[in-house]
């Protein structure tokens, strides 16, 4: 479904990613791990097209998206929940979710039930401004906004960062439900090993901008964790 080949990207004259290659198969939850500053968010931005690739390719369902704009990638079926949520503070909750429909290129103004049913608190807040919500509520809103386009691939960058444990549990349940449904693949960046082990099928570890290790859940043992992830 998603294939990243020998990707190089960075900021200004700084190179952050060097020859990154990974793939996400249909229905998989693939987790991207690594210490702080190794390029995880840079990779997510490059896949979504927010950051242009300097070398290499990003392909989705056999189509080369490397030179495509973020909006074009969204219309191809890629949803994105960025680090920090990026909720539109002055828009209502309802308007924020509607933006997910805009990203898909559809002219429909009806939010799919599948985007909201996983976060039942959101419809009760439709008239509230996004900026008035708590961090956990904003994360649910960002998630629902991405799901509104009914994507085939969902990019989640640190969805549990800075939110209360009860919302973390809700997000875990949502990811498990998406996985069980089998229609949407997920590429997940998350620091919590306990969390990724509870949802992930396959794992990549970045170190100094390159893929240093990859494997399944059974391969992610204490030695690998100690060598690549322990601070």
TrEMBL record:
The keyword Nucleotide-binding applies. InterPro entries: AAA+_ATPase (IPR003593), ABC_transporter-like_ATP-bd (IPR003439), ABC_transptr_urea_ATP-bd_UrtE (IPR017780), BCAA_Transport_ATP-bd_LivF (IPR052156), P-loop_NTPase (IPR027417). GO terms for biological process: L-amino acid transport. Signal peptide: none annotated. It comes from the Bacteria. Residues 2-231 form the ABC transporter domain. Keywords: Amino-acid transport, ATP-binding, Nucleotide-binding, Transport. GO terms for molecular function: ATP binding; ATP hydrolysis activity; branched-chain amino acid transmembrane transporter activity. Pfam families: ABC_tran. Belongs to the ABC transporter superfamily. This is Urea ABC transporter ATP-binding subunit UrtE. The lineage of its organism: Bacteria, Bacillati, Bacillota, Bacilli, Bacillales. The gene is urtE.
């Amino acid at each position: 479904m998603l294939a990243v080949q020998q990707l190089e990207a960075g900021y200004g004259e700084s190179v952050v990613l060097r020859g990154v290659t990974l793939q996400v198969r249909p229905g998989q939850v693939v987790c991207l791990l690594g210490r702080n500053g190794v390029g995880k968010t840079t990779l997510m931005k490059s896949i979504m097209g927010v950051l242009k690739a300097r070398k290499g390719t990003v392909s989705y369902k056999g189509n080369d998206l490397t030179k495509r704009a973020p909006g074009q990638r969204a219309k191809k079926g890629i949803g994105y929940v960025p680090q920090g949520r990026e909720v539109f503070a002055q828009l209502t909750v309802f308007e924020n979710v509607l933006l997910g429909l805009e990203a898909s290129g559809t002219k429909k103004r009806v939010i799919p039930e599948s985007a909201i049913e996983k976060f039942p608190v959101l419809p009760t807040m439709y008239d509230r401004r996004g900026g008035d919500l708590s961090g956990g509520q904003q994360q649910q809103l960002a998630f629902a906004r991405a799901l509104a386009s009914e994507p085939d691939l969902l990019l989640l960058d640190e969805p549990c960062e800075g939110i209360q444990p009860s919302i973390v549990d809700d997000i875990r349940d949502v990811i498990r439900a998406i996985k069980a449904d089998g229609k949407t693949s997920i590429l997940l960046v998350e620091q919590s090993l306990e969390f990724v082990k509870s949802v992930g099928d396959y794992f990549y570890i970045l170190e100094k901008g390159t893929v240093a290790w990859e494997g399944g859940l059974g391969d992610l043992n204490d030695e690998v964790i100690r060598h690549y992830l322990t601070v």
